[in-house]
Amino acid sequence: MLVTPFKTPPPTPTTVSAAASSSNHRQNPQIHLQSVDRRHILASLAASIAPFFAPPPPLESHPPLLPISLLPSAAARGLFQMPPVRLSNRYYLVRAGESEFESLGIINTNPVAKTSVDNGLSDIGKKQAVRAALRLKEIGACENSCWIWPSITQRSYQAAEIIAAINGVNRSNIVPEYSFLDARGLGAYEGKPLQSVSEIYALDGVSTNIKPPPINDGTPNESVADVFVRVTQLMSILETQYSEDTVIIVSPDSDNLTILQAGLVGLDLRRHNELSFEPGEVRFFDPSSIPTYKQPASALYKCLNPPSCT
To answer: Which PANTHER family does this chain map to (predicted)?
Structure first.
């Protein structure tokens, strides 16, 4: 509940004549500072701290303490890891339709332009978004309600609105994501032909830590590992915020989704491009594809005769 602090209204201004002001000034008594006896100070101090030294009430007045085993467990689910032990929600991964830049065959990943009209859906992209929305309706993704998490990128949010409209989802269920789902920053490849992305994927296959060459126009140059951190943080938020819900993740590019899916299934991140998404593609993430969690050796080892353990 929002509580507004109470503020005392300022006093109503009054008009005082110069004569009255002068008269009041002459009548004001002079203020004299009285000396304070040291004994009075000590007595006041003792009275103020006495309650802190009072003996505790008898144990009978305290409520009985519950054993630790009976205390309610914390609701927190702990640190999210890839691949996860389990997922609490159902996830649909959607790549937004083709953007205006993509229709021109140009790479555009600078976050400065992510909300511009040129970064919106092209005519073909709008049709792709409609097909994606119809596909989600066909498989009943939002029959029992759903949450739509698009990137704040123009084309992703437009696709999210189309999905919501066709599936009868209230717009309040669209939760724009401001940074974790930004298109992967491709650095010096900004403005180059789309076909040159294959060069970046060749580097991804060598190491997940190789970044595209930098550029000084504000476009980030992100490695696979950088994107992996972002999408892991996103999943941590979703798994904490929702439980037994359906979440539709709408990304402006393929890399966010391929790296996310590779992390969820435990695939070598250098091979993420093998999971490439086409514009407007919808993919349900099947929890059965998550590998079985294997406990570390330290969790399986038990000492039967502490402290003599071998």
So the answer is: PHOSPHOGLYCERATE MUTASE FAMILY PROTEIN (PTHR47580)
> Nearest to residue 181, comparing CAs of 212, 147, 154, 207?
154
DSSP state string for 169-186 = --GGGB--BSSTTSPPPB
Nearest CA to 164 out of 239, 276, 246, 49 is that of: 246
The three-point CA angle 114-161-273 to 5° equals 55
Pair 256, 183: CB distance under 8 Å? yes
Q: What is the pLDDT of residues 158-215, one digit of tens each?
A: 999 999 999 999 999 999 987 899 999 999 999 999 999 999 999 999 999 999 999 9
Q: Which amino acid is at 92?
A: Y
CB 150 within 8 A of CB 120: no
